[in-house]
Structure formats: structure tokens, C-alpha cells
Amino acid sequence: MVEFLGDLQAPMLKRQISKDVCIRHFDETEEKTVNVLMIGTGEYTTGYVHGAASNSDKGAGVVALTMFDLRSRGKVNRLGLCGVSGTKFPDIRKHLQAAIGDVYEGLNLQLETFPGDNDVDPESFKEAIKSFHPGDAVTIFTPDDTHFEIAMAAIEHGLHVLVTKPAVQTLDQHRMLVDAATRKGVLVAIEVHKRWDPIYLDARDKIQNLGGFSYMYSYMSQPKHQLLTFKQWAGKSSDISYYLNSHHIDFHEWAMRETARPTQVTASASLGVAKCSFNMDCEDTITLMVQWENLPPHVRYLHIACVLFSEKLFYRLELVQQSTHLHGLRRKVMSTLNKGFSIWAR
């Protein structure tokens, strides 16, 4: 599974490289714009929640605002917005105008919306996806249990996918997405944005020099009012460990890559506050205890896949053991990157 999506500079290669790496060469004459369908109309995409702007730090949204900015820079062209209830769209347009259009100059807020303003359709994403062309992109910021069906439909249509964490909730579904993405030749990325946070990047780099893994403790919380944002599905189809703690689960795995692996997971939860405050039957806290084992150097590996799209060539280097050959391979990838390639890691 692709875990991040973006152009990287050569100094960041060692920081970001993982088991599969695809490299794409960009021809200066190739088309730079992309059409993007945004699926999910809630807080993270638009900032609009329960009839008003969110009172969190995402009152103007994140995804739509970013796409409007990218369009002003000539990187994005056609934009679509898809939800379940089209009756929200008139108010969402007013909200976007007030939160973005009236605040930032030069941003075109034009959107194609699915379904129609008078319609309610839980499967509107299918029509929306078909209206875009292979090679376009889709963002998925919807309840956790809907990610798999939407992502699979987008992949089968040949769209590149950016899905919020957790991508899916089972290992089988994760593997099915990986297989489908490989078969269709598209990029599938999980939006784990803590990887781009300078504090987390610095911590990850420093961890590499501390020797074998011994102990890690992390804590993540959110205001109680966020339960109202997620009240339609919190404690029903997903929980706080999936949609929030997944940031630190990902960070831990990212920091340990190629040096250690988890062997056992146990969890405990506490209840009561959500029930008393909002009459919601969901966990207030979920604590994970994970047993890890350090791997001996001779079984550590780097799984590299190079894709040179411009020449329509595909190269895969199978499970290269960490040895002098691996260090030589890394130098070759670094040299390639310095010659004008961009890197996509998965």
C-alpha cells in the first residue's frame, strides 16, 4: 500500500524509502494538471459539519481548500465533490464562499457536485467516479467502514487514490486494494500527514541512531465535542483507535521499518463519558499494548519496485537482503533521483 504521495528531494530519500519504491520520470512537455474528485463532504474536506462551520481548527476544511489553491497554481483543473445528501450542497457552497472565497483572493471555488441538490444517494460515488477519466485522482474522506468499497471502485476505474487513515479495517481488504492497484497501475496513498510534521520527521531520524527497539509510549487525544462530528459512526462502524491513534501506530511502524516487527497486540478500553455526555455507546479511550521483536540484520530487506512510466517499463528487484548489494542499490536510486526523477514510495 502506498503510504504517502508527493515529490521528494534527494535528501529525503533515506527518510521516506520503504519496501516498494516506484520512480517516475517527468517529461517537461507532459500535462501537469489533474482532475480531482473529492468524496466526503464533512469537516476535513469542507469544514462544514451539522449545518455550520466546524468549531475545530478545520473550520475552512483542508482538502477542498488545498485543491482550490492547487488549481490557482495550475496543478489541478476540474474538481468534483461527492457526498450522500445533495440537499447539503447549497449550504456547503455558501460556507465555502464565506470561509474561503471571502478570505483568500484569486481562488476559483467552482465544483461539480454529486448527487443533485435535491437527491439523497449513498451510492452517488459510483456515478461520480465514472464521470472522471483514468489517470484522474480521487480523495476519500468518509466514515472508515466505507473506504474499501469506494477505493476499489476508483481503482477499477483507473483513478489514483488518496484515502484517509485507516485505509481499511482488515488485512484482507488491505491486500485486495494492493493487488487491485498493482493490476490497474494506479497509485494508492494513505493520508498519514504526521509523516510530514517536522517534529515527527526529526524524531524518526533520531530513532535510527538509538540501536534496537526497546520501548515506545505515545498518547493522542481530542476534544469531547469531536464526538458530535463523528456521532453517525463513532462506536458503531469504527472507533477512536482506528481514526485517531492510527497516526501513532503508523509513526511507530515507519520508525521501526526494516529493524523490528510487531508480534502480538492486546487492547483495553474505558467507557462512560461519551454515554453520559452525549448518550453515545462508544469507547472514551482505547489503549494498545504491542509486543515487538528486533530483527537480526541478515533478515532485514528492502523491496524495491521501479516504474519508469515515460518509457512504459517496469522493473522489480525482489527482496534484496541488507548487504553490500543493498547499499549499492540505494546509491543507484539516489543517483537516479538526483537526475530529475521524483519518487513515490509504497
SSE map:
Blueprint: H1 13-16, E1 21-25, E2 34-39, E3 48-49, E4 52-53, H2 63-72, E5 76-82, H3 89-101, E6 112-114, H4 124-130, E7 137-140, H5 147-156, E8 160-164, H6 171-184, E9 188-191, H7 198-207, H8 226-229, H9 240-243, H10 246-256, E10 260-270, H11 273-278, E11 285-294, E12 301-308, E13 313-321, H12 324-338, E14 341-345
Parallel strand pairs: 2-5, 2-7, 5-6, 7-8, 8-9
Antiparallel strand pairs: 1-14, 3-4, 10-11, 12-13
Helix pairs in contact: 5-6, 7-10
What does this protein structure show overall?
31% of the residues lie in helices and 23% in strands. It contains twelve helices and 14 strands. The protein has a six-stranded parallel beta sheet with strand order 6-5-2-7-8-9, sandwiched between helices. A two-stranded antiparallel ribbon has the order 1-14. It folds into two domains: 31-195, Rossmann fold; 213-258 and 260-294, no CATH class. Helix 7 runs parallel beside helix 10 (246-256). A hairpin with a 2-residue loop joins strand 3 (48-49) and strand 4. With 346 residues, it is of the alpha/beta class.
Q: How many discrete domains?
A: 2
**Structural category:** alpha/beta
| Overall CATH class of the largest domain | Alpha Beta
Tell me the number of helical segments per DSSP (H or I, 4 or more residues long).
12
Write out the strand line-up for the largest beta sheet, numbering strands in chain order: 6-5-2-7-8-9
User: Describe the biggest sheet?
Assistant: 6 strands, parallel
CATH topology of the largest domain: Rossmann fold
Query: What is the alpha-carbon Rg in Å?
Result: 21 Å
Arithmetic mean of pLDDT: 77
CATH superfamily of the largest domain: NAD(P)-binding Rossmann-like Domain
Shape: globular
